[in-house]
Specification:
Helix content is 38%, strand content 18%. It is α/β, with parallel strands linked by helices. The strands form five sheets. The chain has a five-stranded parallel sheet with strand order 2-1-6-5-7, sandwiched between helices. A three-stranded antiparallel sheet has the order 10-13-14. A two-stranded antiparallel ribbon has the order 3-4.
Length: 347
């Protein structure tokens, strides 16, 4: 079982959060160990002071090195002398799900919370502490950042959530965002739940979810895809969108043309179709069989032009698949995450 120790000037603030809800239950159920330690218990004066004015002047107080060092040493004596120390700091590397996964595999670690102007930097060096930030902004103390880290790590521990699907399909676990979620009622203010989610067909639902993970990531956080590519994740050179509805042409342009000819598109949808289709045809006229092929330079814009077309299909409750291939005609992995990166001058 993982053991997380938090060294802070405000242990009750941390306890209040860590005793409630999922984390509180997991602690009581014996799935995780979390301890909050009061750095003030290690003050060497009768007023329990653990901070002092900064050398060189300036506003605010700085937390002294010795009480912090003594507190962390006492924790190590209980938990293990090899425990890693993490200092929550706006100067650290921003926390990511990858870092959370890494820490979740340890037997435990210690989190140090600063407050006021921060801590005497010598204790960070002495403890060889890793600095982790919760983002490029400053909050008043390390407690909220520490709780974010502890919560993110704790929920990956066996027994804390009902099963691994509860976190592995969520945003960031696979460097993708989650697919859109819906609950009752089926229609709310004229907005319907996609038909596929009501179909009871688990395979189609799974395919839709995978496709939407990609589509949502491309729309909201395209840079995550680049990060995935940079860490060696697979990617493809080509991309196509296929209508997946019996009676409709597979090619998304032909499918939409057919809907348009049958006067099934609203005038607004028609405008969106014409605008995006024109753009896509201009930049990427290549076609192999039924596959539309997209080239490096235009990939992102191409994808962004595809999404409104997918939205039209969705609005008409028509299924579609986004398919990425390593060369035209060959599917390497449907709905996995790829970014088109290479120029293809001849095919
Ligand atoms: C007001 S901040 C000190 C900021 C420090 N003077 C600086 O400019 O880098 C007080 C404490 O809050 C915590 N803290 C503030 N912002 C944080 C962030 N973005 N991520 C993690 N911890 C943060 C740190 O523990 C820090 O020691």
């Amino acid at each position: 079982m993982i053991r997380i120790d938090i060294a802070t000037l405000f242990p009750q603030m941390c306890e209040a959060f860590l005793s409630e809800s999922i984390i509180g239950r997991a602690r009581r159920g014996g799935y995780i160990e979390l301890f909050c330690h009061d750095i003030r218990d290690y003050a060497d004066n009768k007023h329990n002071r653990v901070d002092d004015k900064p050398y060189g002047g300036g506003t605010g107080m700085v937390m002294q090195a010795q009480p912090i060092y003594d507190c962390i040493s006492a924790i190590k004596a209980q938990a293990g002398s090899d425990r890693r120390v993490i200092y929550m700091s706006p100067q650290g590397k921003p926390l990511t799900q990858q870092k959370v996964k890494e820490l979740a595999c340890l037997d435990g670690f210690i989190i140090l919370c600063g407050h006021y102007e921060g801590v005497d930097c010598r204790v960070i060096e002495e403890l060889d502490a890793e600095e982790i930030s919760v983002g490029d902004y400053v909050v008043t103390g390390g407690e909220l950042p520490a709780l974010i880290l502890a919560d993110a790590v704790a929920r990956l521990q066996p027994g804390v959530l009902p099963n691994s699907d509860a976190y592995s399909l969520e945003s960031h676990y696979q460097r993708l965002l989650e697919y859109p979620q819906y609950t009752r009622p089926e229609i709310w203010r004229g907005r319907s739940v996609p038909q596929v989610l009501l179909s009871g067909d688990h395979k189609s639902v799974e395919e839709w979810q995978k496709t939407m993970q990609t589509a949502v990531t491309l729309k909201k956080r395209p840079e995550l895809l680049a990060a995935r590519r940079n860490d060696g994740s697979p990617y493809a050179k080509y991309l196509t969108v296929k209508a997946a509805e019996p009676g409709l042409p597979e090619d998304i342009f032909e499918a939409l043309t057919m809907l348009s000819k049958n006067k099934l598109l609203s005038s607004k949808e028609k405008k969106i179709f014409v605008k995006n289709a024109e753009y896509l045809h201009n930049i990427l006229p290549l076609k192999t069989g039924k596959q539309r092929i997209f080239l490096k330079a235009d990939a992102q814009e191409a994808i962004e032009s595809f999404l409104p077309l997918c939205d039209i299909l969705s609005a008409h409750k028509l299924n579609f698949n986004i398919i990425y291939t390593d060369f035209p005609g060959k599917i390497i992995q449907e709905s996995e995450i790829y970014v088109v990166t290479e120029d293809i001058t001849d095919t």
